[in-house]
């Protein structure tokens, strides 16, 4: 009996010693604050992650598109660093998803057109007359008998691209050429198939100027024969979200923050969204120095660039109880655009008229408080649903975040406030091969990482202002992952609707 008591006392002593060591290691006696967490954020550490992401892209010919070796290396890198802290419960949420890549070429009447492709279009080569669809092709009735066996010319606008192509497919079109409803070229996604409206065909997209001229010639009675060549590689790929939740803190009140870890196939994505990925990773590595009252969960989403797939998968698989435990979601997508601004998502809807669930207004104000204290002018970005906060809005979870802009054009006023050049895009390398290290505004990267730290630290301490009882009946955009993807006219374009 004395031996058992001695052993028990020894084990208790060892447990207390381990508890003290963990307390020292994890900062359990030192609650996080905005000031203390920001103080630990250093630009060289963030950039170290950025350089790692660039290295990963070299494993896949300069890309970190989901399911590639480059993206898988990014996911492993994030998880390995987090596992070493011992501060988080981490997981790879892995699932298969249909991957698509391709190119399109279109010529007509002896002219080669600058042609882009549309994700999920079919492979094929067709030479046939080019025939106009009525209106913008959003109704089956817009495709007459003349479409059958020919190439349908369809104007962008009014509905998603996939619906237009599906109607054309049902009408028997051999191919589809989409043209922009504004000057310039564009590329987009049809959304994954199958869909009930009809089958997809080979697809290409041309500029508004070229499309208008071609449509005018056809409407004027000129017979035009075109050749469309669509080269496509399609396959199922396994990919993973990386999820890390603090072991301490109230697990019934989870403060969640996320960024997408994949790039487009065209480049390494060091700003889009390597900037958010690196910034959040460094925050997650510094948070273990502190204690949290509310649990904090970090997420790095896969396959955002093909339709928010990772975040949609995550929210679609939440039970009602798991949904309720997530107090709010903070999104960080493109936080270091080289010609960018400082934009806060319009949580209260007072700028763009579309607000988030109750509590989103408080998140917006939290970020405003940060920029005010830093004496930085801020602008507002609309809740367009084109980044990973979108599925959280659909799930009824308060959301917010910051970004620096994508393909939108900087105004003279914005240039006066933030520097840079008016009249060009916030990120001229958006979705291109040149989105590398040199494409980062390192000052914006540091400022916005600290803004993320301010919000995370604030809510890790208190959720005052964030409703904690929500209606569990949530209206989603559709009932399945694949059908949800259909509703995106241009895939992931991020939040180009911004105001100051």
From TrEMBL:
Origin: domain of life: Eukaryota
Zinc listed as a keyword: yes
Enzyme type, top EC level: hydrolase
EC numbers, comma separated: 3.4.-.-
Cofactor(s) listed: Zn(2+)
PA domain residues: 126-214
InterPro entries documented for this protein: M28_fam, M28_SGAP-like, PA_dom_sf, PA_domain, Peptidase_M28
Keywords per UniProt: Aminopeptidase, Hydrolase, Metal-binding, Protease, Signal, Zinc
Signal peptide coordinates: 1-17
Presence of the UniProt keyword Magnesium in the record: no
Domain Peptidase M28, chain residue ranges per copy: 241-451
Family membership: Belongs to the peptidase M28 family. M28A subfamily.
Listed name of the protein: Peptide hydrolase
